[in-house]
Amino acid sequence: MKFNNRNVYVSPNAKIGRGVRIGDNAVIYENVEIGDNSVICNDSVIGEPLSSYYNDPKYENPPTIIEPDAIIRSHSIIYANCRIGKSFNSGHRVTIRENTVIGEHCSLGTLSDLEGDVTIGNYCRLHSNVHISQTSSLGNFVWMYPFSVMTNDPYPPSYDIKGGYIGDYTQVCVHAVILAGVQVGENCLIGANSVVNRKVPAFSLAMGDPIKIVKDLRKYVVMGKGKPYPWMTRFDRGMPWQGIGYEAWAKQERKNAPPRTL
Amino acid sequence: MKFNNRNVYVSPNAKIGRGVRIGDNAVIYENVEIGDNSVICNDSVIGEPLSSYYNDPKYENPPTIIEPDAIIRSHSIIYANCRIGKSFNSGHRVTIRENTVIGEHCSLGTLSDLEGDVTIGNYCRLHSNVHISQTSSLGNFVWMYPFSVMTNDPYPPSYDIKGGYIGDYTQVCVHAVILAGVQVGENCLIGANSVVNRKVPAFSLAMGDPIKIVKDLRKYVVMGKGKPYPWMTRFDRGMPWQGIGYEAWAKQERKNAPPRTL
Amino acid sequence: MKFNNRNVYVSPNAKIGRGVRIGDNAVIYENVEIGDNSVICNDSVIGEPLSSYYNDPKYENPPTIIEPDAIIRSHSIIYANCRIGKSFNSGHRVTIRENTVIGEHCSLGTLSDLEGDVTIGNYCRLHSNVHISQTSSLGNFVWMYPFSVMTNDPYPPSYDIKGGYIGDYTQVCVHAVILAGVQVGENCLIGANSVVNRKVPAFSLAMGDPIKIVKDLRKYVVMGKGKPYPWMTRFDRGMPWQGIGYEAWAKQERKNAPPRTL
After folding, report:
1. From B221, which residue of chain A is nearest by alpha-carbon distance?
2. Which end of chain C is more exposed for a tag (fewer CB within 10 A), N or C?
3. What mean pLDDT is predicted for residues A226-238?
4. In this model, does residue A159 exceed pLDDT 80?
């Protein structure tokens, strides 16, 4: 992703921070604000107009804000009326539709597709080809793996659209399906190819189609390897407890007033 | 998707209707006809040459016709020798390969992939990431959800390619697989993550891997919500019975001579 | 994919073979070598810099080599430090990340995603939307179908990344999941929607979630059609035994010194 400044369109009304690099063939609309030191790679479109643009002559493109230190890889499309927290990192050909709010330090893999009206907390990792339907939401530190999907329609097609929710620290493995409106608790592990058709309590290992609650993860010991879940004490790359350990970080978080959900 | 007319290639032999808008970096080949008031968004390619183009010096690109009022979103690729009915609507990065015929008022979601020799009726809705293999076909008013797939090879790899068929009004939920050559009847609901390995009679709720016929949907009542299927009496957005009701529309359709399958 | 030479960037240091055609809006970096008679279609990027490029001022882009007779379709991205054998054929929007080695006569379908550090043998066919995670590898003559995936993390998220392996001639059907580190033998058939959680012996028909070994394929006879597997005696299109038959080819291979695994 070299930056040759070929065929780039940046609206004169866009607000571009210091040290921002913009790849060839990229388009930055007038409603966009890009934070300092961000990289917008080639062939990306930031601030894509909503559907009503095509028919409404008075259409005004609502603002999209990319906070500092983003890396948005090539051929990605981010619609108008989104807010993306600092240190965001995307793969290629990501689609983020309107009214989406993403917290800080998140990443989205290649070909991920957020269908709009999606809310994502901090430090979430969505791998390639994750599909999130409208009105779905994720807590913090949630990881989702390829071809996992959150749906939002209990009786398709219907007008009763209601996305699900995935709690903090939960891992959703490849090809898992979270059905419309389902609440998945904190610290769960949703197995590969599962169909999650009902509420999942915190600390559950849930697997199968439809899911069964197989284990309480707090009691789950893998022979010779210790307790794999919750995972935060054994994995810290890119996490806010990197270097200091999860327990120390969590203690410090609890001490910091005012109280917070994180 | 503003239209700055940057880096656009429209063959002088293409037939472009009135009021057509073409996005930046788009390519419209000489074999293409685009109906009035259509929108071809940025970075799309319409009329993509078939494989034989690369080797055959006498190659002639067969015609692709996009009927009026289409919106084809960015980075989409539509091959030569396709016909797409009026009021078509696509997401981003759609691929439609050669010899595909799509009826009127259809939509394809972001990243959908029609592999060629596909036939789709009227008023079908394919969501993001639907994959349709060669020689598959859909009736009218069929909806398919993300990561659902129609396959076409009973003993891969073989020369006995035969796509399946999905009947009118049927809903195919996320991650469902329709195996090669399988016929799915009208008015069915195929559950999430199902593997459809045999014929499904009309009005079936089919679920599981491999599917079981779980219910006759005509008898399926959800407590306190009435009968969810067939869905046409409770959902009309974008459907031809919008505003008048399905029963009135169907009656009127039956009255209109000559008789028709729609 | 006409070649109008519009908005093309080819580094003066790239090595471009004879008869190479490069599509509009393509980018070929300085670290790239493209073999004779290859076609790089529009909007592709070859030699994409690795992540460290964004932060390391001394970054040097390692070489990527595309051997002769490739057809790489539009909007594809191939990273630096890859080697792709002769007669490669890709669909659209393919992603091949760094440190990937692909043998001769392979093809990757539209939207396929090789996540890096992947090794693929000769004559493999990956269809649309196949996802291969880091450190996975495939033998020769392996076919994978849409939405099949190889994973690499046994306890996500962990540092114990270990991709699986798929043996020669094996077929992996749609929506199948090969879990981290699993070895699939030669000449297997992995059914649609399977979850492969353990080693699969050669010549197995494996199906289900989790898989069961259902049959020894050498004994698998389909009524009236003969023995479908191993498939090599009944299918030869694009295979090195095309025209001469598998048995004759295999005999000739065995005779050719030095001994080889192919």
Report:
1. A155
2. C
3. 93
4. yes
